[in-house]
Amino acid sequence: MMLASLLFPLLFAGDTKPGPTPNLLAIRVGKAETIAKGTIEHAVILIENGKIVTIGEDLPIERGIPVLDRPDWVVMPGLVNAYSRLGLDSEGGDDMSAEVKASAELYAAAEDFQEVVKYGVTTLGLYPAGNGVPGQACAIRPLGKSKEELLLADGCYLKMISRATPSAKKLFQDGFKKADEYADKEKKAREKFDKDKKGKKDDKKEEKKEEPKTSANAPKQADAVEIEGAAARAQGEAAAQEPAAAEDPKPDEKKDDGFVPPEPEPKAKPWVDLRSGKLRGLVSINNAAEYVHFQDAIGKETFSWDLRLVVQRESDIFYVLDKQCYDLEYDGIGDKKCRVVMEPVLSVTPGTMRNRNLALELSKAGAKIVFIPRNDTLQNAKNWLANVGEMVGASLDRNVALRAVTLEPAELLGVEKRVGSLEKGKDANLLFYSGDPLEPTSKLQAVMLDGRFVHGEVKL
Amino acid sequence: MISTNRIERFVVGALLALLAFPVTGHAWQEGDEKKDESADKKKEEPDKWFVVKNAEIHTGTGSVLRDAMLVAKNGKIDEIGHDLDVPPDAKVLDAQGLRVYPGLVAISSAGLVGQATSDFGDTVNPFNSNMILGLATGITTTGIGNAAVKLKRFSIKDLVVRDRIFSVFSWSARNPSGKRSLREKFQSASAYLRDYRAWEEKVKKDKELKEPQKKNVDTTVLAVLKGESTAKFNANERDDLLGIAHLAQEFGFRPVIEGCVEGWTVADELGRAGAMAIVTPRDRRPKDEALVRDGGSSIENAAILHRSGVAVAVVPGTESVDLGGLVGRDIMHLPIEAGFAIRGGLPEDAGLASITTTSARILGVQHRVGSLEVGKDCDLIVVDKDLLHYEAFVQWTVIDGKVVYDKQKELYFAHIRPRADAPAEPKKLDKGETEPKPDADKPKEGEEPKDGEKKGDEKKNGEGDGEKKGG
Amino acid sequence: MSGARTSTRTAVGASTALEAVSSTRRSVSLRARMLALVAAGLLAACSATRHATPEPGDRPDLSPLRPGETGHALLCGRIITADDADRMLTSGLILVRNGRIAYVGERRPVPAGYEVLDCGDQWAMPGMVDLHSHVHSGGFMDVNDMVIPVNPELRTAPAVVPGNPLIKLACASGITTLFGIPGSGTSHSGFGIVYKTKVHASFEDCVVRNPGGMKVAQAYNPERRAGDFGATRAGLGAILEDINDKAVAANRQGRRDIALENLQKVHRRELPVLIHSAGSDSWAAATRMWHNTYHTDCVLSHGCFDAHMTAPWIAETGVKINAGPRTMDYVVTRDGAITGTAAKYVAAGVKSVSLNTDAPVMPQEELFLQGSMSARLGADSYLMMRAVTIEPAKQFNLSHRLGSLEVGKDADIVLRTGSPLDPRARVERVYIDGELQYDRARDGQWF
Description:
Chain A has 460 residues and is of the alpha/beta class. In chain A, 29% of the residues lie in helices and 22% in strands.
C-alpha cells in the first residue's frame, strides 16, 4: 500500500478534492452492500476503465494494482434518483404532450448536477414538467461535458397524471385513441402492402404511394442511446405484468415478408409504444380514489405502468393495496406488483394521528418500492438516505430500503444493466461510507462515478 | 367512468345478450328459464347471495316481520320471509336481536361521495371518510346536485341511480318579472305540447302533416310538462308557495319545494297541487310581525303538510358531515331530524318514510331504493334499536348485497356500546398501523329503564318507585 | 319571584322581607339563610296558623287546601324526580301548592281543594336548567362590552328582556331556569343573572338570583381583542390574577371596593364563577387558577376540543364541569374515535357534570338534545337527564329550589309525551313556580 501511494503521489495530491483515479484500482472495504447479491463482508472490488471487473469476499489482489484499503468503510452503489427535475427549469410539457422529452431540456453544466453528486446521487431520472401527460423521462449521469455524455437512456418512462376528474381520465383515453388510429393506419397499410405485393406479382407497374422512412421499431437518432436495453426490458416486464399484452400480435412478427409499418405521428408514437411495451407509464396519483379512477380510465387497455405516489401526511392508499381486502373492482397495487415511486416519509391514517409506514405496507402487499428524496431539492438529496433510514427504523425491510434507492429506480429507468448494484460489468458508481449507510452518523467519505472519485477525501 | 365508455359497455352488453339468446334458445323454449339463466351466468360469475337472518325486518312499507330473513341475489332482494333456504356460499349476517331497515335515502347531502356535484362516476372518492360516516348514519343513497347517487364504498361503478332528476326554477316575490317569464315559458311549452300531441295523432293518417314549431319553447319546462324531469323550487314564503301551487295546478305538474318553511300556512293548497316538500323541521324563521296572518316557521310544518297530502322528505340544516363538535344538526343526524318532524306531529311511519320511501319517490328512484321489497336493491341497515331513537347505532350497512360498513370495524363509533359479537379491542379495518389505539372509554352495559320505547318490549320499569340507576 | 311566591312569602313576614331585598343572600349566604329560617320558625311558633307552603326538607303535605291557597294535582304517566334517590315512578301524583311542590309520589286520593289534571301517560320531569346561555336579551346582543378586558362591575341584568322570543322557545322546550351571562370576548366579562323563562312576567318575577354568578373567559376568545394586553395566555392569566388579587386583598382588609364588590363575593364563595374555557391547556390552567389558587366556587364551562383529555385530573380536583356546546371531539384528539366528551368525564369519575347550549350557539331549546347526543355518544342517558336538571342547579347552589321534583322546591314542572331526551317527545305543559307558562293545547306548538 505504501508503495502504491508512492507510485501515485501526484494522483492523490489534494486532500478534499479528489484527484485523478487510476484506471485500474482495487478496493478493499469492511463491507459491501451489493444490492443484487446481498452484503459481502471484507469485500474486494476491482475496477478497471470505469467498470466493476470483479467483486467478492477477501479476493486476492494482484501485485502492482493500486489498492484502496478501508476496513472500516462500507461501500454501496451510487444512489439513483429516478424522479427529479434537478437542473431543469423549463415548463416542458402541457396537458397532452406525451412526445415531449425531458432530455430536450438538458443542460450539462447545470450547477445542481455538480452538487448532487456530492450527496451520492450518481444517476438521475429527469421528467418533463407539466400536467396531464407531460412527456417522457430520461436517465443521466450527472457529470459530463455534453448532453450526450450525460444521457444514459431516453424515453425511460412516460409521466402521466391521474386525477379523479372527467377531463383527466379522458386524456388517457384520447391518448390511446391515437394509438387506435395508428393501428387502423397500419392495418390499412398492411392491406395495401399485401394487395400491392399481390399486384406486383400480377402487374409490376403499380407503384407504392407511401414509403415509410424508418421502421417503427428502429429508434430514432435522438433516442439512440441505450434505448434498446430499456425497450427490451420494458417489453419483458410488460409481458410479465400483462400477459394479454404478450399475446398481441407484434408488428415485428410480420417483418419477414418485407412489410415496413408506417411511422406513427409524433403525438401518437408514445401511445403506440406504450401499447407495444416499448414505453412504460409512470402514473402519478395522490390517493386511493385516483388509483381506481386510473384503473377505470384505462379500462381494458393493457400496458406496463408504475406508480408515482405522492405521499401526503394523511394518505388513504392502504385501501388499494390488494383487491381482496376490500373486495375492490380492480387489482390492487400489490396485486399488480408494480413499482411505487414515493417519498421516504411516514404518514397517518386520515383524520387521525395514527402513524403508518406505507412503504412497508405496499412492499408487504407485493409492490416494489422506489424512494425519492422528500423534496426535489439539493438539501433533501443530502438527507435522503437518512430519511430512508427512518423508514427502516419504522420496520421497513433494510434490503427493500437499500434496493429502493439503487437497483429498483435503475430498473424503472431501464438502466439496471449499467447502474444500481455492485456487480461485475456495471458502471463503477460507488459510495463510501464511514459506517452503515442508513445510520445518520455515518459519513459519506467518497463518491466514485464511472470509476473516478468525484467527491471526498481519498488516499490510497 | 366516462359516459361514452359506459354507453359502449352497455351496447356491448346488449349485443352479448342478443347473441346469448339464440344459443340458449332451446333451453328457454323448454320453459326452464331460471336454470338456463343461471347456467349462462356461471360462465362469467357465480351468483352472489347475501342473507340477513334472525332480524326484525322493517320493510319501510309499513310491515314488520319478526325473526325474519331477507335473501338477496346479485345485489337485488330475492325473498323476504320466514324460514327461507340459505343458498350455499351465501354471505350470512346474523342480526339476532337487531332491527333491519331499508337504507336511508338522504334527499340531499354534501360531500358524501366527494366534492363534485356531477360526473360522479369520474369524481367519486369511494374511500372518502365522509362516505363512511354517511354509511354509519345509515344513508345508502343520496340526492346530490341533480342526481341520486349510491354511497358505494370501494366502488366507482354504477353508483348513479338516476341523473337529471330536477329542473330547477326560481319563483320569488322579489322577482316579479322572473315569475312572469317562467309562466310564459310554461304557457308556450304547454301550447306546443298540445299541438304536438294533436299532430302525433293526425300524422298517423296524414303523413305529410308538418310537425309543430318547437321554436321558442323552453326545453327544461317542456321536460317537466312531459314528465321527464321534476320541477324543483326553493321557496319558503307563503306567497311564493301559493304561486307555485297555482302554477303547478294550472299546467299540471307536481312541484318539489325545498325549504317550504311557511308551507304549513298553505298546506291545503300545496296538497291540492300535488306538491312534494323537502323540509328541515328545525328551520327557524320568525314570523313577519307586520302581517296579521300566520307565518314564520313551525315545528309542526312537516306534520301539517303531511296531513294535507304533501309528500314530505326531511333533511337536516347542515347537509354535510360536521365533526367540529356541535352534535345533532348535520347529515349524520338525519334520523334525529326526522325525529323532530315526529315531535311536530308527523306519524312515526311517515317520519321513517321522510328519510326512506318519500325521499326516494321525490328523487324518482323508488323503484330501486327506499324500501325492502323483492326486486329492489338490497340496500339495508342493521340497527341496534328503533332507528329513530337517539341512541340507535347502525351496526352494519349493506349496499347491493354487500356489507360496506361495520360499526365494530371502524374507529369512529366502535367504542360506543360495542356489539356483543365484537372483539373487546375494535378490530382495525386499517392494516399496518404502527401505534396502538389509546384506551377507549368503557361504555355502560344495559338499557335505560326510564327510556324504553313506546313499543319497546324491554320496559324494566316496575311499579311504584323506580329503580336507581347505577351512576 | 313569582306572584304566588311573593304572596306566600309576604305572609311569612321577616324572612320574605330579607329575601325581597336580595334573593342572592337567601340563596347563597348560609348565615342569612339560617337567620331567615330562625325568623320563620319564630314566627311560625308565634302564629297559631302555620302556613302550608312547603319548604325544602318538609314532609309531604297531603292536607286540604285552605282558603286563598292555590293548588294543582298532576296525575302523570311517569315521573322522573331527579332527586338524590333517583326516584322514578310509573303512574304518579304531583301536588303543587302555592307554587311549590307539596307531594311527589305514588297516586293517592287528591286532597280537597286541588285542581286535578289528568296528564294521561305523559311524563313529568323537573324544568331544565342551562348555566351557559346568552339569550336573555333576545339574541346575541349585549354579550360583551368590548372595550377593556376586565369588567367586574358589569352585570347582564340590565340587558334582560323577559319573555323574549328565545326565552319563550326555551320555556316551550322545558327549560325553566337560565343563567344569562356575558360573552367570552373579554377576560372578565361581568356578572350574570339566574332567571326563570316565564313567558309573560316582569323582570322581578323572573329573577332567581342577581347577580347569579360571575363569568370569566380563560382562553379561546378573549385573546382576540378587547384591549392591547392579553393577546397571549400569559397576558390573559396576568389580567385575571391581577384583578383576583385586588379582590382578595380587599376581602382581607375588610374593605368594600365598589367596583370589586361582586368579585369580592366570589372570593368569599358567596357567588359561583362560571369559567369559559376549552382545550386541555386552558382547562388545566383554569382549574389551577380558580380552584387550586383562589379556592373559588367554580364551574368549568365548555370543555371543547381536547379538554376531555384532562378528565381524570379534573376528577381528582373535584371541580364541577358544565360541558357544551361542543359535546364531541374528533378533530383535536385525532385518534380516530368520535369521543362523546360527557361520557369521557363521567367515565373518568367527574362527580358533577352538567350540559349547556351556549345558546344561541346551539339553539336554546335544544338543551335536552345536548343530553340526547351525549347519551348517544356513550354517556348514561339518565345521568345526561340529570345533567340538564339537578346537576346544574347543584353546581350553582340552587338545588334547594330548582332541578328536581321534591317537596318544598319550586314547582317547575315539564310534562312531555315521552322520555326527556327523546326529540320525538313533545312538551305538552310547562309550569314555572306552579303557574302554567306554556300549554301546547292552548298556545299551539312552539317547539
